[in-house]
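re: ur question from yesterday

yeah so i grabbed the chain u mentioned. its 352 aa long if i counted rite. heres the sequnce exactly as i have it in my notes:
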Amino acid sequence: MSTETTEKLNAWTREIVEWHFNPETGCKFWLDFAEKLSWDPRKEIQSFADLHKFGFFEDNWLRSGDIRDWLPKGNVGKPMYVFETGGSTGQPKTRLSSDDLRTDYSNFSTTLNDDDFPKGSDWLLLGPTGPRRLRLAIEHLAQVRNGICFCVDMDPRWVVKLIKKKQLAVLEEYKRHIVDQALTILKRHKNIKCLFATPKLLQELCSRVSLKQLGIKGVFCGGTQMDAQFHRFAVEELIEGAAFVPTYGNTLMGLACHKPYTPEDNYDIIYYPPLPRALLQVVNPDNPKEVVPYGELGRVMLTTMTKELFMPNFLERDQAIREPACDLYPWDGVRNVAPFSRMGATVVEGVY
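ran it thru and got these structure tokens back, copy pasting raw so excuse formatting
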């Protein structure tokens, strides 16, 4: 990471810690947390590296308690959304949000090529809507690019139940049901040039219709089955010359951008987080305080720093290879994200 990038990250870290731990602007959770400390975060956190003093963010903190404990006093009065992540196997993690999704996707919009995702064109979303933030996010992305977004919902929790019950015929019927709705929309609304879909739903759609004949120019794709094999398959066989933009994101982090494709990357999936609002580190699973060397596999650790959510040192359920900076993103990235192999449970992916 360059000296300039490091200085900006450290300055942002100080600003966010001041916001969340100031009695005038902070939320109840972090203000209560600070009272139990023997040190003052507003004085002692002077750089991103200092965040290790907080220890690791506990998964259950966002699964229990009053959601308003996470509302910063400085944001009281703003319209709020409640978003969930997970929940297929237990209590979901929940967060409040107001402006983060718009900031994340407005920033992401600047990375899209206007020839591939034409401004003024409409979008179709095939994927989870509520209680996740994806629908509002893709709608905002369409709107900021002067388009309209059409949506077809997919419920991943229902998919997980079908798979666990081995009701695969019902699952296939549900997948066809989703794509049937998509085809009805695509055949009627000719200004749809941009598509978001999960890998499984994109594959099902392309088995039934030509995206080229429909006039789709850009495909924005994300989900648990996004890997190098699907990346190659999508580009070489599915999308018929349309632009393909993989994404890695979630309700807690926001949206990571994919490194522009080059042949030497061999279709590997390489993401860079939206610094300074979020940072991904790849750490030693046996000693999460230690970042692994470049090119080595480790567990993904997420730190999110916005004025809506401060979440330091959260150990994700993902693993990845640590990726060095590139020209476009002069900070660490992650390569080939996959479910963390030591979680002790099989990730059910379904149509996601």
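noticed a couple things. The domain at 99-246 is CATH 3.40.50.12780 (Rossmann fold). also The first helix runs from residue 3 to 21.
anyway ttyl
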